[in-house]
């Protein structure tokens, strides 16, 4: 049974980059992550924070490709975790994972998506959540999740500003990996709860999925060192998140944080 979402969910607000306007474009600058929010705390990036769910600033996403793609990956993270936890028989948890990004991210992003010419996919998200909560056959849930994922991938071609160029892709992968590592740190502090681990699991898989899609373009761009760091980081996260349910023996968080820190330095 999952615990209270507001008391443990910090990952969407712990991004590694502050976006600074420079000459009409947004440049990603590394920023030290804030301390985890206390239960029920607000503040920018927290539940109900000033910048939308976890610091997803919808208006900034209208012009900044990093913010836009992070918003899409935050949604993808919920669906990665939700789909896998549904396969473990946790229909309620899956339905909640599918539903949360509708109100937490999509609602704020909806007018921005329309402005960028992206087809509405709220109904597809709602269908996935309903099917999970109704304990529909896994094949139906999988098809619904695939529809949402396809919409998210299609949205990438509409990313604003410089678009989903290799440099932007690398920054977004590092951002999502960093959030996954920080969430794992929080999960270690909440050993009796599934939710913080499940959130981080989704982040890890969202980062891995983007890395797989972006690798050919990054290879062509000569990003060999960055690709190597991405592989090392994803491998470290894989040891932290080997399964969708918490493993009996957690790994040390230090190497995971060290890997993401090196990646963040390389992409900056």
Structural account:
The radius of gyration is 17 Å and the shape is globular. The model is unreliable at 1-53 (pLDDT under 50). With 268 residues, the protein is mainly alpha-helical. The protein has one domain (8-34, 43-267). A two-stranded antiparallel ribbon has the order 1-2. Helix content is 62%, strand content 4%. The termini are far apart.
- Report helical residue fraction: 55-70%
**Oligomeric nature of the chains:** single chain
Strand content: under 5%
Q: How large is the count of helical segments?
A: 10
Count every beta strand, where a strand is a DSSP E run of 2 or more residues: 2
Largest sheet, in brief, is: 2 strands, antiparallel
H-E string: HEEHHHHHHHHH
- What is the structural class? mainly alpha
Counted up, domains total: 1
Radius of gyration, taken over Cα atoms and rounded to an integer in Å: 17 Å
Low-confidence stretches: 1-53
List the keywords.
268 residues, 2 strands, 62% helix
Outline the fold blueprint.
Blueprint: H1 5-8, E1 17-22, E2 25-30, H2 58-61, H3 65-86, H4 91-115, H5 122-133, H6 138-155, H7 166-189, H8 195-220, H9 224-240, H10 253-267
Q: TL;DR?
A:
By secondary structure, the protein is mainly α.
